[in-house]
């Protein structure tokens, strides 16, 4: 029987004896591997880590996934935390069969591009979080990437946590280290891990909104500067596009957090629900900032367009004023260029000089008048 066939039988084996049968079936055909190391993982480089916890304390590695689950269920306490990064359908198949994961949840976890949500399938929870990170840039341009997004899918069962991460960022290493530094919190089980992940994701929301605030402040300063009309409006539109990606991650998470904080879910202990309420408060701040950014960028864009309109009006007034000044010599030269035989002062000795005096005087008077009116 193949390894996949053995794992398929685990789905219906809830007792320790059943897991031992699987271990005996696989013994001699597969060797024990350390899933915490990428190169030695039978699932390939998609495995980030696989760790067992008892009483909030990390246990030594070196066991296969089936052995790890067997030890946890034999002890009647603790859980296994398996971390994956962008697994394929084939790579995730054995894990799904081992833990009896619902096919719909598995499909969502592999395909990604899901909205933030929390769903319950039998005796396990499936949660989706959209992750965001701020993309550093020397100068904001009309093509600058400001916000990069990814996803984290979390399967939470009575004795396991499976995290599936998509994207170039959102590493859960700091979350794991923080939990391991707090054994009392980690001893509360898989629900504590789910809370820590949610808290980490929302903290990133707050950090990204603070960084985006700096970009918006810079654009606002440039728009209201002396030469603000020359500011590239593409920068404002680019911020609005990036803000849309941020809002797609932040806004839909409010409802899932409310479910985790208020509804009675067997896997979420009452004391853990209080922690989710705190995460919801932090999320509310990020939601308010994102909504305020949208209104602020609209105001900045309208102000910029108004400045451009004012600048165009000023340019038109200058053009009109200079055209009026130039019209005087054009008119005089046009009249005396008609070459009639009987024209006043045409053969007068001082006629040429007098015409120049009249032209220059009229032009100076017009120029002075336009300057006083603010047109020049």
Automatic annotation (TrEMBL):
Pfam families in UniProt: CorA (PF01544)
Entries under CDD domains matching the protein: MtCorA-like (cd12830)
Transmembrane segments: 319-338, 350-370
Chief location of this protein within or outside the cell: membrane
UniProt KW keywords: Cell membrane, Ion transport, Magnesium, Membrane, Transmembrane, Transmembrane helix, Transport
Cellular localization per UniProt: Cell membrane; Membrane
InterPro entries named among the record's database cross-references: CorA_cytoplasmic_dom, CorA_TM1_TM2, Mg/Co-transport_prot_CorA, MgTranspt_CorA/ZnTranspt_ZntB
Tree of life domain: Bacteria
Gene Ontology MF term list: cobalt ion binding; cobalt ion transmembrane transporter activity; magnesium ion binding; magnesium ion transmembrane transporter activity
Homology family: Belongs to the CorA metal ion transporter (MIT) (TC 1.A.35) family.
Record's function text: Mediates influx of magnesium ions. Alternates between open and closed states. Activated by low cytoplasmic Mg(2+) levels. Inactive when cytoplasmic Mg(2+) levels are high.
Protein name: Magnesium transport protein CorA
């Amino acid at each position: 029987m193949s390894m996949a066939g053995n794992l398929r039988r685990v789905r219906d084996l809830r007792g320790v004896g059943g897991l031992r049968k699987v271990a005996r079936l696989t013994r001699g055909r597969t060797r024990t591997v350390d899933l915490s190391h990428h190169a030695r993982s039978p699932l390939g480089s998609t495995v980030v880590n696989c760790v067992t916890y008892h009483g909030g304390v990390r246990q030594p590695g070196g066991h296969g996934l089936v052995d790890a689950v067997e030890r946890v269920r034999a002890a009647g306490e603790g859980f296994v935390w398996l971390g994956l990064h962008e697994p394929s359908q084939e790579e995730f198949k054995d894990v799904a069969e081992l833990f009896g994961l619902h096919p719909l949840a598995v499909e969502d976890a592999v395909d990604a591009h899901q909205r933030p949500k929390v769903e319950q399938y039998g005796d396990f929870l499936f949660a989706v979080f959209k992750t965001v990170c701020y993309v550093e840039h020397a100068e904001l341009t009309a093509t600058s990437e400001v916000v990069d997004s990814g996803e984290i899918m979390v399967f939470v069962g009575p004795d396991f946590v499976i995290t599936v991460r998509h994207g170039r960022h959102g590493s859960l290493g700091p979350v794991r280290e923080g939990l391991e530094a707090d054994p009392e919190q980690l001893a509360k089980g898989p629900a504590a891990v789910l809370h820590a992940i949610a808290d980490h994701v929302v903290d990133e929301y707050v950090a990204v909104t603070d960084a985006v605030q700096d970009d918006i402040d810079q654009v606002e300063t440039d728009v209201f500067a002396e030469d603000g009309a020359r500011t590239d409006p593409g920068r404002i539109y680019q911020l609005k596009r990036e803000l849309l990606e941020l809002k797609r991650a932040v806004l839909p998470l409010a409802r899932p957090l409310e479910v985790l904080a208020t509804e009675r879910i067997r896997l979420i202990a009452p004391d853990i629900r209080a922690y989710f309420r705190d995460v919801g408060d932090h999320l509310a701040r990020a939601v308010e900032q994102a909504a305020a950014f949208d209104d602020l960028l609209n105001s900045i864009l309208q102000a910029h367009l108004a400045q451009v309109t004012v600048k165009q009006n000023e340019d038109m007034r200058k053009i009109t004023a200079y055209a009026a000044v130039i019209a005087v010599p054009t008119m005089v030269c046009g009249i005396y260029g008609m070459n009639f035989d009987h024209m006043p002062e045409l053969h007068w000795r001082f006629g040429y000089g007098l015409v120049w005096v009249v032209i220059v005087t009229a032009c100076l008077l017009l120029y002075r008048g336009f300057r006083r009116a603010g047109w020049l």
